[in-house]
Structure formats: structure tokens, C-alpha cells
Write a structure and sequence with these properties.
The structure holds two protein chains of two kinds.
Chain A lengths: L15 E13 L4 H7 L5 E13 L3 E5 L6 H8 L7 E6 L2 E2 L9 H5 L1 E4 L13 H11 L6 H14 L16 H13 L5 E5 L7 H18 L2 E6 L2 H7 L2 E6 L2 E7 H6 L4 H9 L38 H5 L5 E5 L2 E5 L2 H4 L7
Parallel strand pairs in A: 3-8, 3-9, 6-7, 7-8
Antiparallel strand pairs in A: 1-2, 1-4, 4-5, 9-10, 10-12, 11-12
Helix pairs in contact in A: 4-5, 4-6, 5-6, 6-7
Chain B lengths: L8 E12 L2 E13 L4 E5 L6 H8 L8 E9 L2 E2 L5 H7 L4 E4 L3 H4 L6 H12 L4 H14 L5 H4 L9 H12 L6 E5 L7 H18 L2 E5 L3 H7 L2 E6 L2 E7 H6 L4 H8 L49 E3 L2 E3 L6 H7 L1
Parallel strand pairs in B: 3-8, 3-9, 6-7, 7-8
Antiparallel strand pairs in B: 1-2, 1-4, 4-5, 9-10, 10-12, 11-12
The chains are: A alpha/beta, B alpha/beta.
């Protein structure tokens, strides 16, 4: 416990505690060696995350959105150390996350926890709630005394609006929303500062989703938590985030404060996503759906990977990869990776 | 079928039961509604509310031991819930098309999609196989599949998720049914594809005056697509009415809570409205109104008597708050 990674005594609010720098994760999805030799094929590399950079300030919620296969869950796993980055680095309190898997990284690991999508799969069905929630305490050797552990479990259950009496039960005795609270309680056991939430409400019904989102917001205020929130649901992201990053085929294409992003989306893909979502206010609206689908990530288009679906694509978009640049506009500041925006070819606000 | 004035589909007092060792579970209880030709009825509710079972009962695809215990289903004035298996097979596909959530399980992986569509057409319509193939290509083109004359000989695994769902829609519409039951047709798809599929379904059905029963848990999809909405809770319809009324002027406290719990872009709120607790399990449905333990406006009568649908604003709601007699008594 002596090496708790707190470089400064009391960090200032708003200081970046998580930082990703050109973070990349490639997966080798090649066929087996013999097949490659016989079929004369090379290796196949899937660039799940390709040079993504962002930082997250203390107490902030950064959301990553995108369609399936865009790499948002891979970023989540990289940030908790479940994957080791192929290139680039991720920092947590100034420490490289590669240290996480070393004994020295143990105190660091207590400070970051993860909440998974499926509350049915992420809780051991044979364990009682008391053991599930106490597992991180025991694993990290934070508490030995049984009574102290029991008291902490009670406290955690109360924190997530469940009853201390629930600790004798098994996961199957809870509904989906209650199970997700159990996983939140387990994640909070080690007093983490940073929670990575990978689609925490997408398996839940809307009324239950509201309960979990409200709880997450309350806990953030009470405990000063920092969230990385991964979701494909833009309405949920709009509700919970401070800043939003939009991912497409492994790259961050736009990053902006929530209000700026939703009021004045810059990147053509973000505009398309915002146009595509059905909303309650849109009764009887005729949509203008965007043609095309996400291309195969094994063989992404050259240049800007969005160009085959983009109405503003030009010759430059097909050859040159755009990089994330800060753009100032009427509604604020946005980081966006788009040649058309940079050249001022897209008007509208 | 002969022409028939009145609603295309009429469901009256439908009750679906599951006999189990520990007694009979009532999954859908006393559900009545109708759909007019060319109308889109949205059915929403949380998982386990009975919306998919209602759809399955209408097309006669309830999995045993589930069974229709009471009530009737009429299509164009004729009862279809008590038809023998072979009779029902002729109606399924011909009169009622079905689209399910997962396009991969709706298609046979061992046959080309062309063969599957041609089979559906020749089974139900009196055409030669050459004509059927031409019609299949037309259908694929209409659902927006590029190069249909080449794609028709491909297998389901050669299509992406969005394209597969288009094939399923082509299959459902192959015999020009009068009613399509779409059970979560876009849930497995990404948002940008979702929009394409919903638009497609809407245009195809508008052109042919096909009625749609659209089952989903996504209120956004309903808001954009449906003419009327039925909100289901614990096996019963809590509220049914025109889409704009149900969304903007909900009458049942459950619908009010449900609408408030959905994050939208129109309003920015610190906290979402939340309905505490969760929907009761089938074994523990409370007496009276099934929603009363979670309802903040419940009063004495709610825990004793079960409300039926009654007029409430422009909609109908199963809630004692809208009963004149109990309002007088409360006042």
C-alpha cells in the first residue's frame, strides 16, 4: 500500500488522470502457417485501434461512441490493462499502463476498475453476493478481518441502493438492473478513481437503464469518480457525458464537449450518426438514411476510411489519411479528422 | 381472401398460458387490439411483457407448452387461431409475413437466398419457377440489394447483417401478405443500418397497403414508424393510442414513467425519471393492477380490482385514474 500512485499530494480538479497517446492495438488474424504457405497468402492484421489519442480529466465522463467493430471496446480493454497496446501508450496518473501487469502495478490496479456489459455473464452464479463483492478486497489484500470485510460489503450494497440483507443471496435472485448494481458495487470495493464502463446499460430495459444511469451519476458526484463510458446509444451518451469521442474503424474521428458535438457535429460520419438515430421528438419524420455499411476492417479503404460513404469525399480523401485537428467554429471547439472540414468545404454553421 | 370491411386483424381477449409443474403461468392476459389495412401498430414493453408472445400467437408459432387458452384472432373477419396446422401453414407467408430479430436464424444457411425466396413464391402463388425467380430478383432490388441478379445465387453467410435483414424482408413480402409481423427487426443492427431498414419497411408497406405489427423495445423506432402504439406491461396492454398522444401525452402512470426514463436529445436533464423496482415475474403478478406496487399514484382500488382499458384522452388506458366513478370517490 506504500506505493499508491499519487505523484502529487492532492491533485487539482480537472487535471488529466488518464492519457492515451497514439494508442494502437493490432490483432493478428492470419490463417495458420501451413495455410499461408499453401495458399501463398500473407499475414492478416486487424487494426482494431489505430493511433487513438485523448485524455480524461478527474471527475469527468468521456464517452466513446461508434458502431460495432469500431474499436471502442478494445480501447476500454486497453485502458484497464486487459490488452497490451501494440504501439503508443496509455498513462494513468503518469504511470505507463504496461506497469499494471507487474507487481509494482498492483496499487495502480486498485484505482481503476471495469463494469461490463452483461450482468448475467460477469457475476459468478455459484458465489454469494457477499463473496462477489468482497473478492477485490481479498484479491488486493486490502482487508483481512472478516468483520471489516462484512462491514465494507454492507456499505457498498447500501451505496448502490441495495439492502445489506441481499448479501446472502445468489446472482440469479436479482433482476438485470440489480445485477448491474452488484457489478458496480464490486467495482467500487477498492475505492477506485477511474471506472471503465463498457456498454453498462445496453442489456437492460429502458426503465431499468434509467435507474442505473441515475445511480452512476449520483456515485460520480458522491465519490468524485472519473468515467470512460463506452456505448453505441447516442441518447444515453448525450445524457451521461461531459465530452464525447466518435470512433470509426479504429480511429477517433471527432472529439468535442458534449453540447458542441450534439449541437454542431463536424465530421460527416458524426452528422450521419446523429441523423440516423430515431428520437421521440421525431414522430412521423421521414429519414434520409445514409447509404452503405461499415467496410471490412481487415481491408479498410485507403486515405480517410469513411470516404466511400462520405458525400464530401474528394481525391485527397482517397489517398491521404486525415489527422485529428482542433477546429474553432461558432458553437465551440472540436477536434476532428476530416480534410473537408479542414479545407472549409463543409459549410452549415 | 374476400374483401372485408373493418379491421384487417382483430385480436380479442387473447390469453396465453404456459402449463408448468408448479401451476399455470399466464404470460398474456386478456389482450385485445386491432390493426387496419395499411396501418403500423407499434407494440412496446420491457422484456417479458408478452409482446413477442402476442406476435407468435397471431402467426400460430407459439412454442409448446405455450398455448392460446382463451380469446380469438381474426384475420379479415376469419378466425385463424383454431385452424389446423396445414391450414395455418397456407396463411403463414401468404397472408401474414414475419420478420424476426436475428436474420441469420431466419435463413437456411445451406440454401442460396434465391432458392429460399423462389420456394416461398411458388408455394403461395401460382407462378412458374422462371417467373418466381424474376420476381425474387425484383424483390431483392426493391429492398435495396445491389446487383440482385448476381446476389440471388449467394448463400446467407455471404451477406452482411444489414443485407441479410433486407433478404428477410424480401422473403416476408414475397407473397404480398396483408399483414407483416416484425419482431425487433432492427435490434441486432447498427444505428446507421437501422435507419435504412426502417425506411425500407415503411416505404414497401405504404406502397402495398400492408399492415405492420412492429414489436420493439425501442420507443425511438416506434415514434418514427408507427401510427398507433400499444404499451404492454406484465402480459396486458397498459395503454393504446395514436403515437403522438402516447409519447407526448401518456395517460397510464407506467407510460409516463417509461417516457421519462428514455434519454432524448430534445431535453437535457440532470436525472432521468425512474420507476423503482422492476416488472414482476410471471409467478408473482400482484392482484389488481399489476403496476400498482411501483405506481406513485396508486390508491385503494388499484390493489383490489384489475382495470380494463378505458378512454383516457385520445388514447385508452387500463388505469383507475381514468375511471369517472373512482375519481368521484377519491374527490
Amino acid at each position: 500500500m506504500s506505493a499508491v500512485p499519487r505523484p502529487r499530494a492532492e491533485p487539482v480538479a480537472g487535471e488529466a488522470i488518464v492519457r492515451a497517446e497514439r494508442l494502437s492495438k493490432y490483432f493478428d488474424v492470419s490463417p495458420p502457417w501451413l495455410n499461408r504457405v499453401l495458399e501463398r497468402k500473407g499475414r492478416q492484421i486487424l487494426r482494431a485501434v489505430d493511433g487513438v489519442s485523448f485524455d480524461i480529466a478527474r471527475g469527468e465522463t468521456l464517452s466513446l461512441v461508434g458502431e460495432s467493430g469500431c474499436g471502442k471496446s478494445t480501447v476500454a480493454r486497453l485502458l484497464v490493462g486487459l490488452y497490451v497496446p501494440t504501439a503508443g501508450r496509455a498513462e494513468f496518473f503518469g504511470h505507463d499502463l504496461r506497469e499494471l501487469n507487474t507487481p509494482a502495478g498492483r496499487p495502480l490496479r486498485q484505482k481503476l476498475q471495469m463494469i461490463f456489459q452483461d450482468p448475467y455473464a460477469s457475476l459468478n452464479p455459484r458465489w454469494r453476493v457477499a463473496d462477489i463483492i468482497a473478492e477485490p478486497l481479498r484479491a488486493h489484500g486490502l482487508m483481512q478481518d472478516r468483520q471489516a470485510i462484512a462491514a465494507r460489503v454492507d456499505e457498498l450494497l447500501t451505496l448502490v441502493r441495495l439492502s445489506p440483507a441481499d448479501k446472502e443471496k445468489y446472482p440469479h435472485q436479482f433482476s438485470g438492473g440489480q445485477r448491474q448494481r452488484l457489478s458496480i458495487a464490486r467495482a467500487l470495493a477498492t475505492h477506485p478513481e477511474f471506472l471503465v464502463c463498457d456498454e453498462p446499460t445496453s442489456a437492460l430495459d429502458v426503465s431499468v437503464q434509467a435507474q442505473v444511469l441515475n445511480l452512476m451519476k449520483d456515485l460520480q458526484r458522491e465519490l468524485g469518480l472519473t468515467y470512460l463510458f463506452i456505448s453505441h446509444n447516442l441518447a444515453v451518451v448525450h445524457h451521461i457525458s461531459d465530452r464525447v469521442g466518435v470512433m470509426y474503424l479504429g480511429k477517433l474521428v471527432e472529439l468535442a464537449p458534449k453540447r458542441t458535438l450534439f449541437a454542431a457535429p463536424r465530421h460527416p460520419y458524426t452528422r450521419m450518426l446523429l441523423d440516423a438515430i430515431p428520437d421521440l421528438e421525431m414522430t412521423g419524420r421521414a429519414r434520409t438514411p445514409v447509404a452503405g455499411e461499415v467496410p471490412n476492417p481487415l481491408n479498410p479503404p485507403a486515405g480517410c476510411t469513411f470516404h466511400p460513404r462520405c458525400p464530401h469525399a474528394e481525391a485527397r480523401c482517397k489517398s491521404e489519411v486525415p489527422v485529428l485537428r482542433l477546429v474553432r467554429h461558432a458553437a465551440g471547439e472540436t477536434q476532428v479528422a476530416c480534410h473537408a472540414v479542414e479545407e472549409g468545404r463543409i459549410d452549415r454553421g | 381472401m374476400t374483401s372485408h370491411a373493418g379491421p384487417l386483424l382483430e385480436v380479442r381477449n387473447l390469453r396465453i398460458e404456459f402449463p408448468t409443474r408448479r401451476g399455470t403461468l399466464v404470460a398474456v392476459d386478456d389482450v385485445s387490439f386491432s390493426i387496419a389495412p395499411g396501418e403500423v401498430l407499434g407494440v412496446v414493453g420491457e422484456s417479458g411483457a408478452g409482446k413477442s408472445l402476442t406476435g407468435a400467437a397471431i402467426i400460430g408459432l407459439l412454442e409448446p407448452p405455450g398455448r392460446i387458452a382463451a380469446g380469438e384472432v381474426k384475420l379479415a373477419g376469419l378466425r385463424i387461431d383454431n385452424l389446423p396446422y396445414d391450414e395455418m401453414r397456407k396463411i403463414r407467408g401468404r397472408e401474414i409475413g414475419a420478420i424476426f430479430q436475428d436474420p441469420l436464424t431466419s435463413l437456411n444457411p445451406l440454401y442460396t437466398i434465391g432458392r429460399q425466396i423462389v420456394e416461398t413464391i411458388t408455394t403461395h402463388l401460382n407462378v412458374s419457377s422462371g417467373q418466381a425467380r424474376r420476381r425474387a430478383i425484383e424483390l431483392l432490388a426493391a429492398t435495396g440489394i445491389p446487383a440482385p441478379e448476381r446476389r440471388i445465387d449467394h448463400y446467407p453467410h455471404q451477406f452482411s447483417g444489414g443485407m441479410r435483414q433486407r433478404v428477410v424482408i424480401a422473403l416476408a413480402l414475397a407473397a404480398e401478405p396483408k399483414l407483416v409481423i416484425a419482431d425487433e427487426p432492427t435490434t441486432a443492427l447498427d444505428v446507421s443500418i437501422q435507419a435504412q431498414i426502417i425506411t425500407l419497411l415503411k416505404t414497401l408497406c405504404r406502397d402495398k397497403r400492408t399492415a405492420i405489427m412492429l414489436i420493439t423495445h425501442d420507443m425511438g423506432v416506434i415514434a418514427e414508424t408507427a401510427d398507433r402504439v400499444a404499451v404492454m406491461y406484465a402480459g396486458r396492454i397498459a395503454e393504446i393510442g395514436p403515437v403522438a398522444d402516447v409519447i407526448h401525452r401518456p395517460q397510464h402512470p407506467y407510460t409516463v414513467g417509461l417516457m421519462g426514463s428514455i434519454p432524448t436529445f430534445g431535453r437535457e436533464v440532470e436525472r432521468l425519471a425512474q420507476i423503482d423496482g422492476s416488472m414482476p415475474r410471471l409467478t408473482e403478478i400482484p392482484p389488481g393492477c399489476a403496476f400498482h406496487p411501483r405506481c406513485d399514484r396508486a390508491f385503494g382500488r388499484c390493489s383490489r380490482e384489475r382495470p380494463d382499458l378505458m378512454p383516457a384522452g385520445a388514447s385508452q388506458a387500463a388505469c383507475w385514474l381514468h375511471d369517472a366513478a373512482s375519481r368521484r370517490a377519491a374527490a
